[in-house]
Amino acid sequence: xxxxxxxxxxxxxxxxxxxxxxxxxxxxxxxxxxxxxxxxxxxxxxxxxxxxxxxxxxxxxxxxxxxxxxxxxxxxxxxxxxxxxxxxxxxxxxxxxxxxxxxxxxxxxxxxxxxxxxxxxxxxxxxxxxxxxxxxxxxxxxxxxxxxxxxxxxxxxxxxxxxxxxxxxxxxxxxxxxxxxxxxxxxxxxxxxxxxxxxxxxxxxxxxxxxxxxxxxxxxxxxxxxxxxxxxxxxxxxxxxxxxxxxxxxxxxxxxxxxxxxxxxxxxxxxxxxxxxxxxxxxxxxxxxxx
Length: 291
Prior knowledge:
Elements: E1 7-13, H1 17-28, E2 35-41, H2 48-58, E3 62-66, H3 73-83, E4 88-91, E5 97-98, H4 102-109, E6 117-124, E7 129-132, E8 137-139, H5 141-146, E9 156-157, H6 158-163, H7 175-187, E10 190-201, H8 213-227, H9 233-245, H10 253-259, H11 265-276, H12 278-289
Parallel strand pairs: 1-2, 1-4, 2-3, 6-10
Antiparallel strand pairs: 4-9, 5-10, 6-7, 8-10
């Protein structure tokens, strides 16, 4: 593979023209230059198409496709991947952004011994950013089935992700977790390099892809049905907590003892505290969002 392979960045979008601008700008200002951007519009009714046209008139590395109707984020990702010119592909949600060195760091770390390469990410509350899963790790299947160690984006060979079956358009949530898990099953451990270079913005009032509680829970059950035969007892215990967490129910002391699992201990503890001190949790979140 070339030392500077063409990398296609897929960006699904729907009625978020201002956030799309931020996402686009973060790719266009990457320190790595050999990039193709593939925007797939899920039938926006705002002026997204005009905004993209302005960018395309200025930059020659942007491609655009618009569906007549909303086919879902996975369909948009899969369309971009199958039509990508790059030998390596990665994604960006339209409400998120890359830090300037992200693509360069991922390409430098890419090694075909690993199924894919990824990094940690920043959870952006508005006034404060917290790095998550930002330590380096060779992610084996056991670790991946505890929780999604790769977060929502990774750099992978276009052909590998196609051969692994692309994103499952039937899942209502956990699409990323499922995709990276299937790649690890097919090609072996992944590599997560130390640091965080992807920013997940949460302060806006627009919906994220996963959506409602019912969709999150349905997607979790779909994921479990696909992969439970590969899960250890620890994996299943972690999953039980993730299922409970997504119900947004209060975590009592008995359930805390029943669901506590070391690989996700911080998440369990935080949720237990917020369950019992909701006003304190609300004040903390407001401070992080600077509201």
